[in-house]
Amino acid sequence: MTIRVLLADDQALLRSAFRVLVDSEPDMEVVGEASDGAEAVRRAKEERADVVLMDIRMPGTDGLAATRMISADPELAHVRVVILTTFEVDDYVVQSLRAGASGFLGKGAEPDELLNAIRVAADGDALLSPSATKGLIARFLAQSDDPDGDDDTDTARSERLGTLTGREREVLVHVAAGLSNDEIAERLEVSPLTVKTHVNRAMAKLGARDRAQLVVFAYESGLVRPRVE
């Protein structure tokens, strides 16, 4: 299957460079470009994109707002967003994950890292930049103020967490730690297919789009606590 990629960046030169790189791969193609967030949302729908490489800072509708719009649109439920940012670990990244992004990557990443990011996102996996530790992301998720946070939200999270089986909660903890299905399977002494089944069931019960959203939920619900260095 060919991965359909949309490039959203206000710098034409960067879009051209990304296009050449992506189109050179046999399993992916660039199906469109956008110079701002509003255009990215529209083109994602028109071109039936699978993955959007989204610059977080753009004039008009920025990448963060566009990611929220994509995540909230049922017609774009299959679209995965990878945030491209110059500053790899900041509050924008946390907001992006909360908004529904599958992960983020620094603009200084190597070509192979960018291509791998597209494939990882298309497969529904969580993506964290190799130069940013999961522990640091966890601390931001745990410490950042949630503008929508209140008692009702906490209660709703607790109720959703209560729908998980003991094994699903155990798998969720390992997902939040950044482990792959194979790594989780080895630790729990089960097959990778069994782990995948538990992950999919947890996603369905928690209303998560992908593994990145499972990570966010695990920390915001208090199931997993960030380690203090």
UniProtKB/TrEMBL annotation:
Modified residues (4-aspartylphosphate): 55
Keywords for the protein's UniProt record, in alphabetical order: DNA-binding, Phosphoprotein, Transcription, Transcription regulation
CDD domains: LuxR_C_like, REC_NarL-like
Domain HTH luxR-type: 157-222
Domain Response regulatory: 4-122
Keyword 4Fe-4S: no
SUPFAM superfamilies, sorted: C-terminal effector domain of the bipartite response regulators (SSF46894), CheY-like (SSF52172)
PROSITE patterns documented for this protein: HTH_LUXR_1, HTH_LUXR_2, RESPONSE_REGULATORY
UniProt superkingdom: Bacteria
InterPro entries according to UniProt: CheY-like_superfamily, NreC/VraR/RcsB-like_REC, Sig_transdc_resp-reg_C-effctor, Sig_transdc_resp-reg_receiver, Tscrpt_reg_LuxR_C, WalR-like
The keyword Transcription regulation appears for this protein: yes
SMART domains named in the record: HTH_LUXR (SM00421), REC (SM00448)
Pfam families: GerE, Response_reg
The protein's name: Response regulator transcription factor
Organism whose genome encodes this protein: Streptomyces ossamyceticus
Lineage of producing organism: Bacteria, Bacillati, Actinomycetota, Actinomycetes, Kitasatosporales
